[in-house]
Amino acid sequence: MSEQPRSTPSREILALAVPAFLALIAEPLFLLADSAIVGHLGVEPLAGLGIASSVLLTAANIFVFLAYGTTSIVARQLGAGSRRGAIAAGIDGLWLAVVLGVVTAVLVGVLADPLCGFFGASDAAREQAVTYLRISAAGIPGMLVVLAITGVLRGLQDTRTPLVAAVMGFSANIALNVLFVYGLDMGIAGSAWGTVIAQTGMAVALVIVLIRDASRDHLPLRAHPGRVLAAARQGMPLLVRTLALRAALVLTVWVAAGLGDVPLAAHQVVATVWSFMAFALDALAIAAQALVGKELGAGDTARVRAATDLMVR
Questions:
Q1: Contact, 277 vs 29, CB < 8 A?
Q2: Which residues have C-beta within 8 Å of that of residue 175, sequence separation ≥ 6?
């Protein structure tokens, strides 16, 4: 019998990184689709979208530790041979995402007007931005749930399921945006509703996947407050790093808004394309994180076994 080709580290990285990259670009693709569709409505709606999307992405991406922190924890548990522990950690991350998502959605929805007013854009662009942001705030819990469960699946070495969810969500987003904006003549509000529905649908699909895995291992879905708070504390360093990064990006939007609606609209297009390209490097980071976490978990298990052997002797 011929031997099966061995899996090399490069192949393992690519096997995780390629689907991860395609899933990562889902959010920029959402915004690209929104920008293309809203752009046909005029300069003011596109400029308003630039303001609203900056606030929305900042509100969601400061909790990116839900994905990256969960990936390392789950991968380490998996490497230690505890799939149940890995999925349990994922359930804790899901509950943390729900709590943070609901609180953030309420704050963004209530404060939409002053948040958009901070950028100093024209009254017409601000009105469009507030409309989009108030509706899109309803999709924040779904966005954070997608982050958390995607982190769980990456830790379990599964980057294909998030990819499938991202493709379905992106396709639904385009179809709903076209229907609401052009078919029902809802304007920028239609684009916001289409995106909210698509993001929430992605979240529901991924929750079903996690529930299925938990049921297979006979794990309860209830939250463990202590472990959830521990997960939140572990994400604080990454939260600080993300706040610094988002502050720099928000500053560019503020400067563009001061130049007028046309430069702001152009900035929205360029920034979305830039975000799309930047995620290529993140895909490699995710693959490395999942593999290293698994190896560290295996190393922890080996050390525990060695210590146990010494105690027995």
A1: no
A2: 194
Distance CA 19, CA 170 (A): 15
| Residue 294 scores a pLDDT above 60 | no
- Could you give phi then psi for residue 30, rounded to 5 degrees? -55, -50
Q: Which amino acid is at 303?
A: R
CA distance 144 to 286: 17
How far is residue 191's CA from residue 42's CA, in Å, rounded to a whole number? 14
4-56 pLDDT, tens digit each: 445 555 665 555 556 666 666 666 677 777 778 888 888 888 888 888 888 88
Helix/strand/coil for 122 = coil
Rg of the chain on CA atoms, in Å: 21
CA separation, residue 127 to residues 43, 231, 262 (Å): 13, 38, 16
List the structure tokens of 184.
């029902």
Alpha carbon distance 159, 147 (integer Å): 13
* Diameter over CA atoms, the chain: 78
Please tell me the number of Cα atoms within 13 Å of 168 on its side-chain side: 15
Over residues 204-217, the mean pLDDT reads 88
Q: What is the 3-state secondary structure (H, E, C) of 6-72?
A: CCCHHHHHHHHHHHHHHHHCHHHHHHHHHHHHHHCCCHHHHHHHHHHHHHHHHHHHCCCHHHHHHHH
pLDDT band for 190, please (50, 70, 90 cuts). Answer: very high
Mean pLDDT confidence for 75-85: 75
Q: Output the CA–CA distances (angstroms, integers) from residue 125 to 113, 122, 158, in the order listed.
A: 12, 5, 41
| pLDDT in the model for residue 307 | 31
The Cα–Cα gap between 53 and 194 comes to 14
Q: Are 47 and 268 in contact (CB under 8 A)?
A: yes
**Which amino acid type is present at position 44?**
E
Average pLDDT over residues 89-116: 89
